Amino acid sequence: MRPLGELVKGIYRENPVFRLALGLCPALAVSTSVENALGMGAAATFVLLGSNITVSLIRNFIPAKVRIPCYIVVIASFVTTVELVMGAYLPELAKSLGIFLPLIVVNCIILGRAEAFASKNTLGISILDAVGMGIGFTFALTLIAAFREVLGDGKLMGYMVFGPRFQPVLLMILAPGAFITIGLLMGYFNVLDARMKKRKSEAEEKRG
Hints:
With about 210 residues, the protein is mostly helical. The protein is about 70% helix and about 0% strand. The protein has one domain (about 1-200).
């Protein structure tokens, strides 16, 4: 069960955005469209996977005093790779993501997984952790972006969602709209989590 648990925990139970409140800067900045959200999610997942694999492989050879600088160098190498590839093949997306693409280097999700997980676990488990966290981060960005794009523009990935009479809520594509959307979604997941715990507790009491 542990491998499966490591894979799925990042999607909901330890979702980096909704449950751990990490990576909020890119979540706020690039979630104006689903396309941007998917691009940032894919880039972050690639860096997560690459850094977790590398850190897990070299964890026994890095002196404790310089582990953080070493992790940052590893992460920066993968971020540079993403930048170059995206700039060559997806220049419009790279331009849309702007400064937040190179800032993946200091994304607390990636450095946190390298320090707290990959440096203490085997390669296989570290890969599952990276994939799960990457999926969870991408899911969070996409969900936020979908709400903002639909309400703020009336479209989803270029397709009209509402009729021509729909008046877009321009606030949703501005910075305050990002805060409002994340706050509401966090609140929803907290309520959902509380209900699930209550049902689990009630079920255990009945069995007892």
